[in-house]
Amino acid sequence: MLEKDVKDYGDLVFEEIKEDPPFMGKIKNPRYVGSANKKISEAVSQIIRDGRLCVSLGGDHAITIGTLHGHAQAQPDVSVIWVDAHVDINTPLTSPSGNIHGTPVSYLVHELQEYVPVMPGFEWLKPCISAKDIAFIGVRDIDPGERFIIEKFGLKCFSIHDIDKLGIVEVLKRAMDAVNPHRDKSFHISFDIDALDPTFAYSTGTPVFGGLSFREGMYIVEEVGSTGLLTAIDMVEVNPELGDKLFQERTVASAVEVLTAAIGKRRHGNFPSFYDLPKASQTVSTADL
To answer: 22, 53, 136, 153: most buried by Cβ count inside 10 Å?
Structure first.
């Protein structure tokens, strides 16, 4: 049983932009995605300034342009744990697909500013984190441009190979130590459901086999959440319209369990603050009747 003061800030509604041609003939829906993320950033920033932990439900991973930017406006010293099968750090110039959900990190990292053109709809956006502030966990599908960026700027990237070799406990410790060594900054978890193996989360747009187990995903959010420094978490790429009913239900259930674990639900049990153990003297036996 969790005791949480929950405030639903409601769904954000984004205005449709009818004339939104691809940027450079390649990057899709830039004006719509850019304006939507400006709205997301403002909303997240306000929620965090209200002193609350912000839970954002996507939607694809492009929403983290707004959620992380908004977090950084409220708390500039932020550290990021990016849990994903992908690193999503292509620039608009290296993206093979033209999908903005494969590029969000590149808009936010200071070191990449000179490699990212200003797209229509993104004029408001400025980088808000450094390469040292973000660590990736669960990665197993990286494009050539992304691999080059990771190595050029020394980003902390823990692939499934690293987890197989070191174990999730050591990988998470190294990731947290890299981005928040003194545990004096807030944490932002951006959790793409495709970080989990499709056995647990098939109903997503780009599933990649060989992913995190459900238990590994839970451990990540439990440990970060237990620091008391978690200020924002995104859950993205859950698409219950994909797959059959079993896959849909399993994917949604996995997402719910991850989110509740991040905010304090413990697999070893919870009890409410008002709970007290009943004493035998307070019971009435049949002999007393």
So the answer is: 136
Task: Please give the DSSP secondary-structure letter assigned to residue 104.
Answer: H
pTM (2 d.p.): 0.94
- Reported as a single tens digit per residue, the pLDDT across 211-237 is 999 999 999 999 999 999 999 999 999
Tell me whether residue 230 is exposed, middle or buried, using C-beta atoms within 10 angstroms of its C-beta: 0 to 12, 13 to 18, 19 or more. buried
Q: Is 237 a catalytic residue?
A: yes
286 pLDDT tier (thresholds 50, 70, 90): low
The mean per-residue pLDDT over the stretch 175-204 comes to 98
- Tell me the two tokens of residue 53: 């932990």
Active site residue 192: yes
d(CA 187, CA 34): 24
| 88 a catalytic residue | yes
Residue 164 falls in the annotated catalytic set: no
Whole-number CA gyration radius for the chain: 21
Segment holding 139, helix H or strand E: strand 134-139
Which one of the listed residues 60, 71, 88, 133 is annotated catalytic?
A: 88
> Is 71 tagged catalytic?
no
